[in-house]
Each structure stands twice: as C-alpha cells, then as structure tokens.
Write a structure and sequence with these properties.
With 377 residues, this protein is α/β, with parallel strands linked by helices. The protein has helices at residues 65-76, 84-94, 103-123, 127-131, 151-164, 180-191, 207-219, 234-243, 259-267, 278-296, 306-313, 326-335, 362-365, and strands at 9-20, 22-23, 26-27, 30-31, 36-37, 39-49, 52-58, 138-144, 168-172, 196-200, 222-226, 249-252, 273-276, 300-302, 319-325, 336-337, 341-343, 346-348, 359-360, 369-376. α2 packs antiparallel against α3 (103-123), α5 runs parallel beside α6 and α9 packs parallel to α10 (278-296). It is globular, with a radius of gyration of 20 Å.
C-alpha cells in the first residue's frame, strides 16, 4: 500500500451484473454469425480519491470481478489517480501469469475508465476535453439486425434507425450464408437508398465465400464489411481487403485487448477501418489505437458502448463513428443517467459535465447484480 493522502485512491467498489436480452419487452436469445447469447455481463467499478468518485464499466463476464479483487486493487490502493498511464501498464503487468486478453482486459478496462473519469472530475472538466477534444460529436450508426430476427423484426429495427436520422445501420450475417443476400436486400428496402448499409459476419465466413458474398452485397450498396473472416486470420483479412469490391471497406479490431492487437492488424494491412472498444482495451488502449490509426492513415471506429464512446471517440481525431448497438443502448438506458444526446444522427458528449457525465442508477439495476467487492476507507 502506498502512502495515504487526501488525493490518493482511498477505496474501490466493483459490481458484476448480468442483464437478460430482450426484444420488444420480452426475454429472448440473440445470435450473430458465430455465437448466440441470452444475457450480457456488465462490470461496474467506482474508485474514490480527493472527495470525488470515478465511474467505469465494461461489458464482460462476472469472472472479471475477482480479478479486480485479487489482482488489481493492490496496485490501486494509495496510488495517485492522475497516474493513469503508469497504472494502466502496472495493471496489465500484474495479469502476466493469468493472461491479459479476455476477462482480465475487461477488469483492467473498467478500472482504467474509472481512473480517467476520476481524473477529469478532479480536474473539473469533461472527459472529452481532458483527452483532447478533437470533435464536438461523432456520427452514430444503428447496430443490431441479429441473425435470429424474423424478416419483420429486421426491417422494423433497421428502418426505425433510418427514420430516426441515423446515416448508417449495421446488420449481422453469417448464420445462414445462402440466405444472407436475401436478408441484405430486405434491409436495403427497409432503410431506403440514402442510408449506408453495413454488414458484420463476426468471422463466420471462409475467405472465398466472403469474397463472393461481398460481390452480392455490393449490388445492394453495402459499404462496410466487418470481420468477413476471423480477426485471427490476418492473412485472410488482408486478402479480402485487397480484393473487396469498391466501395466496401473491411473493418476489424473489436477484439483488440492489447496495443499489440491493433499494431498487428495495421502492420499486416488488414483493415480499411480500425475498430477499438474502450470497454476491452481501456481509455488508455483506445488512445493508443487512435495514435496507431493516425500513423497508418486509417480511420477509427468505436465499437459498442455508445454512452462511453460518445466522450472517448470525440476526443480523438481519426474517430469517424460510434456503434449505437441495440443491446448496449438498452442496458445503458437502464444503468445510467446523463446519457449523451443523440441529435441528427450524431452522439454529442456533454462538455459542461465533469468526467463522462454518467451516474449510476443503482436502485433500478439491483435486480441484475450478482456479485460485489468493496475495499478501502
């Protein structure tokens, strides 16, 4: 434990939640091209120092909470909350023998987000301004269109986002490749000609299968093909990026847990658009991804968690959009007050609010809490 003083980290609280999926108010499983799920895990971390509290969260399994308790808190206890860079790397180093990617990364990310929020609050400024303030807002694209949806559900969801003024929407593909061209054509009909259409295979296709489907998708005006093959197949991503029919861009990076993950995608020429998710790589990792994207001359897209990424993406010059993901929008509306405004298809962080501006609605979400850890004063 470091020497104690009023401006040092005094306490921490971490809560793990599990939120069932729901569509139109009823619980039901959802699926994409490679997996199905019936719930979403959320880790919420609060860190106290100097009379302020920083709030962080990550979409990760409850197994991430014991990592906060058993590994990370010992590093945070008594630390200077302004030392976010040093703490990020110390937290990462502490997971060497258990592995950084996955649930460890989720724990580190939630803590790192809480530390940046705390630093901004102690400084009396918004998180966007603290991180650099590159944009007033960032374009949002509607994201859902799960592969288990009926035709009516797919058309209604994507069409509603188009009617709401979002300039782009994304749907899942890959569960039934033979049916995907028909579903994509249905989506285009629902959103009309003036809205960009993205597809996300979550790595479900084989290389040549993805290339053939891309040709068919291009006929429907698709402009974005996310993970046409697995991100672990970097040679395949590079092949597809080189041969993808214009104007389709290849996007990947949502599973970037460590800075090296982003570096490797860029060095190997895998992407037209690099994705990063601060709830997996932390705000520190997101900043590294943004710097790498700038160096390699590619745009950056924020993956899911729109309530957080409105503030984080707006701070970085290469950021072009934020994923307005159906499940996370629903969860964040339950979990937080102070959500960023969505106006004219753009997410607008509140620069007048300290930190990211989010406050936890604890009584409303208690039903979803499965575990708690608290330590310190």
């Amino acid at each position: 434990m470091r020497a104690s003083s009023p401006d040092r980290i005094r306490s921490i609280r971490a809560d793990a939640y599990v939120v069932p999926t729901a569509t139109e108010g009823r619980r039901r499983p959802e699926s994409d091209g490679t997996i199905g799920w019936d719930s979403t895990g959320v880790l919420v971390v609060a860190v106290d120092a100097g009379g302020s509290t920083g709030l962080g969260y990550a979409y990760t399994a409850p197994a991430s909470l014991p990592i906060v308790e058993d590994v990370l808190w010992a590093i945070l206890d008594g630390a200077d909350p302004f030392d976010t860079e040093r703490l990020y790397w110390e937290l990462a180093a502490a997971t060497r023998n258990i592995g950084w990617p996955g649930v460890s990364a989720g724990a580190i990310a939630a803590v790192d987000i809480a530390l940046h929020d705390l630093k901004a609050r102690l400084s009396g400024m918004s998180l966007t301004r603290l991180l650099g303030g590159a944009h007033e807002g960032v374009d949002a694209y509607g994201s859902g269109g799960f592969t288990d949806y009926t035709d009516d559900e797919l058309s209604t969801q994507l069409g509603s986002w188009a009617a709401q003024g979002l300039g782009s929407v994304k749907m899942k593909v890959g569960s039934r490749p033979d049916d995907d061209p028909r579903r994509v054509a249905l989506a285009r009909e629902a959103i009309g000609p003036g809205v960009e259409l993205f597809v996300d295979a979550n790595g479900a296709y084989e290389r040549k299968q993805a290339l053939r489907l891309a040709e068919l998708f291009a006929e429907e005006g698709v402009t974005w093909f996310e993970e046409p093959v697995s991100s672990q197949d970097r040679h395949g991503l590079r092949l597809l990026r080189d041969r993808m029919p214009a104007p389709i861009r290849v996007a990947a990076g949502e599973y970037g847990y460590t800075p090296a993950d982003f570096r490797d995608l860029l060095i190997d020429g895998c992407v037209d658009v690099l994705q990063a998710d601060a709830t997996r790589c932390g705000i520190t990792g997101f900043g590294i991804a943004a710097a790498l994207a700038t160096a390699f001359g590619v745009p950056l897209s924020a993956h899911t968690a729109p309530a957080l990424h409105a503030s984080v993406a707006a701070a970085h010059r290469p950021a072009i959009n934020v994923e307005y993901f159906h499940d996370h929008v629903r969860i964040e509306e339950q979990f937080f007050d102070g959500l960023p405004a969505l106006a004219d298809g753009r997410l607008l962080p509140d620069r007048s609010a300290p930190g990211h501006g989010l406050t936890l609605r604890e009584p409303d979400i208690e039903v979803h809490r499965v575990r708690r850890f608290a330590a310190g004063d």
